[in-house]
Amino acid sequence: MNQCIAISLLGFPLLGSPLVAQTVSVTLDESYGDSYKATATVTNDTTETFDSWLAHLQLQGTIRSLWRGFIQDEESTAASFQYGISNESYNGRLQPGESTTFGFIVDADDGASLPLTGTVSPGWTPTDDPQLQVADITVVEGDGDGTMAVFTISLFPPVDDATVSVSYATQAGTATAASDFIDSSGSVDFAPGITSRTVSIEVVGDDLEEGEEFFTLDLADAIQATISRATGRATIVDDDGDTNLPGKPQTGAFNYAEALQKSMWFYDAQRSGTLPEDFRIPWRGSSATGDGSDVGLDLSGGFYDAGDHVKFGLPLAFSMTMLAWGSVEFPQAYVETGQDDELRSTLRWASDYLMRCHVRHEDGTTVAFYGQVGDGNVDHAVWAPAETMTMARPSFKIDADNPGSDLAAETAASLAASSIVLAAEDPAYAATLLDHAVALYQFADAHRGKYSDSIPNAAAFYNSWSGYQDELVWGAIWLFRATNDPAWLQKAQTEYANLPGDGNGAKSFNWGLSWDDKAYGCYVLMACLDGSANYVADVERWLDFWGDGFNGQRINYTPGGLAHLDQWGSLRYAANTAFCALVYADHVGEDGDGYATFARNQINYALGSNPQNRSYVCGFGNNPPVNPHHRNSHGSTTGSISQPTQNEHILYGALVGGPDANDGYTDDRTNFTTNEVALDFNAGFTGALAGLYQEFGGYALTDFGSTDLLYVTVDDFPSGPHTDSTWKDLWPGTKWANGPDEGRLSVDDQISFDGKGKSIRCLYPQGGKQSGNSGAQWFADLNGEYEDLYMSYWVRFDEDFDFVLGGKLPGLGGAVSFEDRTHEWSGRLMWREDGKAEFYVHVPSENNYDPGDRFWWNTEGFQATFIPGRWHHIELRMKMNTPGEFDGLMEGWFDGVKAASYPNFYFRDAPTQNASIAWVFFSTFFGGSSSSIWEARKDEHAWFDEFTVSRTRIGYPGMPLDVDSDKLPNVWEAQFFENETAASAITDDDGDSFSNYDEYIAGTDPLDAADRFRIEWEAATTGTSPTLRTDGHSGRRYILERSRNLTQWTTDSATEILTDDQAVEFQPTRENVTDFFRIRVELP
Length: 1084
Hints:
single chain, alpha+beta, Immunoglobulin-like, Glycosyltransferase, 5 domains, nine-stranded antiparallel beta sheet, seven-stranded antiparallel beta sheet, 22 helices, 23% helix, EC 3.2.1.4, glycosidase
């Protein structure tokens, strides 16, 4: 089918009133049975920019699958179904003339669809109104007199002509008023020009072991301002019992210890090479382990630059210099927050790599330095995790004929600065770093030139705009700090004189410290190390320009208070300057208070004190970015930047590029200008956090790391049938199992959701029903009691699966205790007749709300339906209710689309108040009762794969590359057949004696008998060898094999993997025997 119909859409521009209705064209792509698939195209035909859209569809059928959009509302009448479809985060913003699409599958009696007008809801609209917000805090309970919980209420922008006031009141959470904190209420006033006030709440100390508790401070009734964040949470850390908290009491607006901890974590996420066995990020693996093989060296290790996988030497080395500088200036911050080991590990990982890149003569002098691994243009054309990279990764170097003083001197600075941090732990290693640093600096000084002239591939990404003079000063300063040799200070002074000026006899002051220009960092260091008037004047001129202004010149500020130097990485420049301001303020004491205030304001902006009331640090604070431009954390399995919709993993601690000059920002993965992350973005930011921690404290998180409580694949499990005892040994926490001993559970090494590993195969025997004689069942303890968890897994039913009346699927469960089944509850799924999926909760039998109703069903949202032969992704959320309150929550997602939402349910009361989420309840069988009508009519099978339980939303990873596990990729089936599941691997559709699977491997057309894998033979003449030819296809390798008996074959020669379609020729060596030849094609 390819007929077109029309729906209407109303768009809202970023600012202003609704526009007139806009046309949305809908194409009916295909139909199968009582269903059809359609694609809707939304086009902005106006001259304004859309920020979001909401299309209303009236259909003669129900939507059972939707992509690139969300169902916001749904109504039905006797004649039709009405849906409101809204944009996803990445396709809501439409510039004039731009289009986007969403698609859906409808179950209907016919393919008709009626047009209907609709509306669009606006997204966030910038405002100039003053905004009030209250920050979260963490306090230690203490004994006896306890302590004070100091909340900071911020106002931005400041109001210069009126007094702003706001009321506040405390509210109990898990902490109890009077016994844990003193209930309080009141109001605070902001005099003209004042931007922050504090409210102190007394925390009651005791010697009881209580665990963490919390209460909140709520804002209300603001005058002359709008409340953008009304609730601040105070977490009370229990210090009774065996507790060793990393940090100290928090007195500032944010928990700088937590931010520092997470910022260090980001560098682990960027690691390249062979990762250690105890690596703390489960979704990262070893990658690019062959780097340098093209030049015969081991250049593995180091760090990926940003959201890509190139290793750019200049920003990498600069980032390590800045990280080391932060520790040199504020060492106690790293020690007290428990980050000193992480810092040393990061610096050593980088230094090991940089030394591998340094090629030396026997006398120690420099031969070359490899300043880049990976081609930026090739790398940026691929959107996939680093672990899956297959492209060539060329190595680029500088040497005497192709100099790079900036790169070599920056690397010298990095190794020298790192040696200061690492000397106490390993003096021999530190001495080795210094040895390399001196040789590299001498090379930089003797062979002058810009590295980007010698490595042109770098120029498009990290061109050396400022030249190399700043690095010659910078490197000498750090060699002086590392060696205490006055000759290096003298060298720095000499080279400093050659730094560029502003044209009026002073050094430049209207830019900032970055990977490219270190002059501004040199101002700070020389003023602190030497103290001469000219150095002091240079640094204060620059910091004044960033603060209150210098001689009428001042950096641009956003309305919300961000010092905005440049759009690309706006927060990076502000954070680097903030760090320098803290270093200088610490050096000059009270005279530097203004610089310290500037620094605090800039870092607080990044952490959440801004008009958008959001953190710009992933995994930290309020409403942080969840979709940074970052291939690894996105986790796409399809090569698409848009799938999955939300990044699969939280990139903790990563500072994104940041807002525009008007505080505008969208969490858009495709916007690498505002939403990419990078090594150098976090470098000065980390040091600034360390400085603020030393002043304002905070506590690092004791349970920080992966939010996953369980991640199980069976790829390492033995293939074949299993017994109850073997299964309990393999699956973590399994206490009891039913089904394996009866031969109903096995590990299948032929089918898996990703086409690479293994899966669980369950048998439902003919005539079986319920768990005693159908499917399999076990309880896996999560080793804790949880209130709010997510669970996901993949499931696939056989191609001819008969669903009969229904059956059960896995979920989460719990009880008062693991052994106590009388108080058991579960949240799970059930398949129904025709494959319809339902989410439900089974409540404890003692529930006194409605003892007669133990099953609470939910079919809200679209009707999820299982398609036999196809993998489906299930995600379930269970949130326990407060005992006696109607505030429990069940949510469900089917292939990433929300299919269930049951808020305000009640199943935990006084008799069951101790019930919690405690186990994975793997339970699957035919049946809903003991009646024979539920029995399987024949032997049936289903497969399960990749189980995850997490404290946070797991998300849909996107459609598997081979969604029906028939060894034919989706894109290939969709190219030649109706859709991604339409072909059969064993069928020969064009009658050329090659199956569809053979045609896929060969790269030929499965529907064209003339296009088949064939070999041409050119007979040998006297003294020559025969020639064999075939048409080669991109992505494949061709192997010539030889045999003398047509039974045993050996490889004669082979091609590399072809990068494009081309003819392949082989000319085997003649031997004085009878040989048979064949060409084999492989698709790696």
